[in-house]
Amino acid sequence: MKLPIPGQPVRGSKTGAPIMALLDLLGRSWAMGIVWHLYSGPSTFRKLQDYCESISPTTLNKRLKELKDSYLIERTVNGYALTEQGKELYELIEPLGSWAKIWAKNFK
């Protein structure tokens, strides 16, 4: 799967609307989990692998590359970390986590 780029066809959008490119990227296995985890601070590859439980090293490397190429994370001396854009993204999406907990009560 190639990197979703705004303005180019992506999953769910022939025109590559920016929101659709972002949702394509974040909808990939563990992409959102990596962003969520890194909001608490930098993490090494090994710690990310532990956090992501069953993720293979190949898939983790692929997600990290995609998130780096999308300017959401960067490699630092302390491991992988969110960029300023990555932090902004988390802060926009975090309220959905709270909303989802309320929504989930409908299924109990």
Automatic annotation (TrEMBL):
Q: Which residues form the signal peptide?
A: none
* InterPro entries (alphabetical): HTH_HxlR, WH-like_DNA-bd_sf, WH_DNA-bd_sf
What UniProt keywords are attached to this protein's entry?
DNA-binding, Transcription, Transcription regulation
Tell me which domain of life the UniProt entry assigns to the organism this sequence originates from: Bacteria
Looking up SUPFAM superfamilies in the UniProt record yields:
Winged helix' DNA-binding domain
Q: Which residues form the HTH hxlR-type domain?
A: 17-108
Coiled-coil blocks = none
Among the GO molecular function terms of this UniProt record, one is: DNA binding
Q: Would you tell me the protein name for this molecule?
A: Transcriptional regulator
Origin organism is Leptobacterium flavescens
